[in-house]
Amino acid sequence: MRNELLENITNQLKHTHLITLIGENMSGKSTLIKELRQYISRNSVEENIFTLQVDAPQNRIIFTAHNSNALEIRIDDLSYVFHKLAQADNTLSDIDTYYERIVLGVNNSIKIFDENVVISFENSESNAGSIRRHLDRILKSNLNIKDISEADDQKVLHWRNSIEQTIMDKTKEIFGDSVEKDDEDKKIIFIDYHSGGRKKLTQVSSGLEILVLLLFIIELIKTFESIGIRFILLIDEPESYLHPTWQEKFLSYVQAKISQNFMVVYATHSQYMVSTNDLDAINIVSFSDDEILCSKLTDLIPEKIDVRRDREINILKPVEDSLGLSLNVFSLPFLTVEGDEELALLHKCAESINVTKIISLKGAGNILPYIQASIMCSRDFRGVFLLDADLKIENYIKGMEDKLGLIDSIKENFLFLGKRIYSFDEVYKLENNNYKLRLEECLEDFIASHFYDNEEQGYRCLAEVAKTVIDEFQNNHSIELNNSLTCLENFTDFKFKVIISCLKNVRYVPNPSLSGTEQKKENTRLHKMMQDRLKTKILHNTLSMDLRKLEPLIQRVNQSLFSSTGNS
Fold first, then answer.
1. Rounded to an integer, what distance in angstroms lies between the CA atom of residue 486 and that of residue 482?
2. Are 242 and 250 in contact (CB under 8 A)?
3. Which pLDDT score, from 0 to 100, does residue 265 have?
4. pLDDT by residue (tens digit) across 50-85?
5. Which residues contact 4 (CB under 8 A, 6 or more apart)?
């Protein structure tokens, strides 16, 4: 494989910190990951950089330190990765403290996926102990005794000990002293269920097994990153055995973890593992003329586009081909909403909206390719982008004026939700670069203003829902309420953002084993969980109300769909 290609990917990592490799079967993705690990090990000038290659379908890890031979590690021996890294840092003394940090990190992270399980470590038996246990089981079965000490003939015990020693000697002869690798420190991961019961990691479902493997590796990396070690994590098909919901959550989790000292490259066949909020991270892998090729998706987009000539261009076509999907829904009328809450709400009245499809962006960061694709589709394109009014839309379409010059042609396709429905010009920046007062409003503000008798009643009802969320978390977490309830009782600035700020007064009870920074991260995660729970409960309540309150919004959507035909 060309070193130039591997060097390009390595340099790309320095800027994006995350690279997605997509391509058909036999395009060379797995080979590219393997060669990349070897290339980094041979060519990196940094002695404190490590690569960890995770082969998800095979449940194995390949560990490589700077300019050293690769070491393959089984999933049931994850603790060995920890000890190899500990050996690389001579200042690391309190091993148990670092183990505790990793376990805490994994248990906090696994709640994103399932709140009913926790992991723990226990010391495993030694190799010699394992051999003796299996020999004793054979002897007890053949001699029909319950305990090996009941054997009358001392020759039996002598024979047992001789076989044990022979096995150990032969194992050392074949594999060397590495067979005793940190034998006394070797640990096994257990999964404990809140409903009761415990299993070894190798005994749980394949999905949970691969998830814990990946979480352990990433939390381990983040722990050692804090002492100056750099990592490149290479993952082949992280989606293996994971439900699409877990795949999306895992990708978001990884995106939140990457940094200058922790970079990730992964190969995937899953549409749920391809994020469009950073097109620069997507690389298309193909095989041609006995050579592996790798191109950035953004390099495949034409620099200049003639709408009349290129109106059928689909910038996601390379992604479609690589994943074997048809993603181009833009030739039919569609409504694109910012998140799943808007999607669930509008699906209830979809028959009244003149679209064939409602698409959730799952975050405004994913809007760019949809806008580009809509511009490049046929003249008959009709679509509406329904976003929250607090969105800084200029940040997401930055540069498109220079590249396409077509924002004016589709601005009628944008609607923004807040206390009322806003147009594109009401939330977009002024030509003189002086920004208008930011509209700190969103879907929940629309609900408060339209689904209740008056605005104040609406916000008071949302505040009551927030109190129930605090009660739920107080029953399941060690938290301090501070003045959060008082804040929810007495606020007078009627905005959903104010209710969210009241929730942020809630804090975890200080944990003396955590640093100030770690405690802050835990509270940030707590606030995110509470905010998500609050939005879910508000949505659930709204869905049981009179959805005819949505008629003004539906009329605006249909009006925008009708007027967009002329703009295209």
1. 9
2. yes
3. 93
4. 788 888 777 678 877 766 677 777 666 666 676 666
5. none
Ranges of the chain with pLDDT below 70: 1, 44-48, 59, 66-68, 74-80, 82-96, 123-134, 143, 145-157, 170-186, 276-279, 300-332, 356, 365, 369-370, 372-382, 397-409, 429-439, 562-568
Place of tokens 């607090």: 390
User: Which DSSP category does 74 fall into?
Assistant: E
In angstroms, rounded to a whole number, what is the distance separating the alpha carbons of residues 73 and 265? Answer: 19
Asked if 439 and 419 count as a contact pair (C-beta separation under 8 A), the reply is no
Q: What is the pLDDT of residues 304-317, one digit of tens each?
A: 444 334 334 445 56
Distance (Å, rounded) from C-alpha 55 to C-alpha 62? 8
- Beta carbons of 186 and 77 less than 8 angstroms apart: yes
**pLDDT confidence of residue 277:** 59
Strands 49-55 and 60-64: antiparallel
The answer to whether the Cα torsion of 388, 392, 395, 401 is positive or negative is positive
Give me the DSSP letters along 81-136.
HHHHHHHH-TT---HHHHHHHHHHHHHHHHTTT-TTEEEEEEEPPPHHHHHHHHHH
CB 219, CB 231: distance < 8 Å: no
Which tokens hold the place of 51? 């690569």
- Please report, to the nearest 10 degrees, the dihedral formed by the alpha carbons of residues 257, 259, 263, 265 taken in order: 60
Sequence-distant (≥ 6) Cβ neighbours of residue 303 within 8 angstroms: 403
Reported in sequence order, the residue ranges of 11-48 that DSSP labels E, i.e. its strands, are: 18-22
3-state SS record for 263-320: EEEEEECCHHHCCCCCHHHEEEEEEECCEEEEEEHHHHCCCCCCCCCCCCCCCCHHHH
User: 17: which 2 tokens?
Assistant: 């910190």
Phi, psi of 281 (to 5 degrees): -85, -15
pLDDT at residue 130, rounded to an integer: 63
Residues in the chain: 568
CATH placement of domain 3-110+206-295? 3.40.50.300
Q: Could you say which DSSP state residue 436 is in?
A: P
Say how far residue 221 (Cα) sits from the centre of its chain: 16
Instruction: Name the E strands within 492-553.
Output: 507-508
**What's residue 433's pLDDT?**
44
Q: Where are the domains of the chain?
A: 3-110+206-295, 127-180, 301-441+555-567, 452-544
Predicted model pTM = 0.55
- pLDDT tens-place string over residues 209-251: 889 889 988 988 888 877 777 888 999 999 888 888 898 889 9
Rounded to 5°, the CA angle 47-50-55 comes to: 160
Task: Please name the helix (run of DSSP H) or strand (run of DSSP E) that holds residue 218, with its range, or none.
Answer: helix 206-225
Beta strands in 407-564 (DSSP E): 414-417, 421-422, 479-480, 507-508
Residue corresponding to tokens 């009241």: 502
Secondary structure of residue 376 in the 3-state scheme? helix
